[in-house]
Write a structure and sequence with these properties.
single chain; mainly alpha; 81% helix
Length: 195
């Protein structure tokens, strides 16, 4: 019975990671405006990034110390997000357009995920704490929740885009604004501006 509670706690933890607005959800939303497949593939790339980060945290949870590396992580995240803002503002997404190859879409989700300061910091804080408490069973629930999110979230957005043709452009503009805010925040924090 204890394993069931740990798996449920892991699911709650997984939803706490994926539901809040952030760079990954913005990218998934934008890709979902191209096609459901692109949105889900991007989400699977993000899920793989969580797998990489979770594995690292779980493997070294007794010795992990970020220290001075946090600023470098935030700086790298600011650069990645700034590049995404530039691309979002340049492109005009068309609903149901054919995206790049699945491998490329997946790889973008993976790279953004492993360089996303929020994901890294989440894993080194909440993920690390729960590695001590719940172990592997908790991680099963966590990844089940992430799996549900990376399918349901793009599906809802794709249905919305089919209902109203203005939604893809609105999603691109809102995505650029949100990512720009995150990029500015991480850039300021990386150079030591107290916020």
């Amino acid at each position: 019975m204890n394993e069931i509670y740990l798996a449920l706690a892991g699911a709650a933890l997984g939803f706490s990671l994926v539901i809040p607005p952030g760079p990954m959800n913005v990218l998934i939303a934008n890709r979902s405006m191209r096609s459901l497949r692109a949105g889900i593939t991007t989400g699977l790339g993000a899920m793989a990034a969580d797998g990489v980060l979770g594995t690292i945290v779980y493997a070294v949870h007794a010795t992990i110390q970020l220290g001075a590396w946090v600023r470098w992580i935030e700086g790298a995240g600011a650069l990645v997000l700034s590049g995404m803002v530039y691309r979002l503002l340049r492109e005009r997404p068309a609903a149901e357009s054919v995206p790049s190859s699945d491998v490329r879409v997946f790889t973008v989700g993976l790279i953004v995920g492993v360089t996303n300061p929020f994901q890294i910091i989440w894993w080194v804080t909440a993920g690390l704490a729960f590695a001590y408490v719940g172990g592997a069973v908790l991680f099963v629930g966590l990844f089940a929740a992430i799996g549900v999110w990376v399918v349901v979230f793009p599906a809802l957005l794709t249905v919305g885009a089919r209902t109203d043709p203005r939604i893809p452009r609105v999603v691109s503009i809102v995505s650029a604004v949100v990512l720009g805010g995150f990029a500015a925040y991480f850039a300021l924090v990386a150079v030591g501006v107290p916020l």
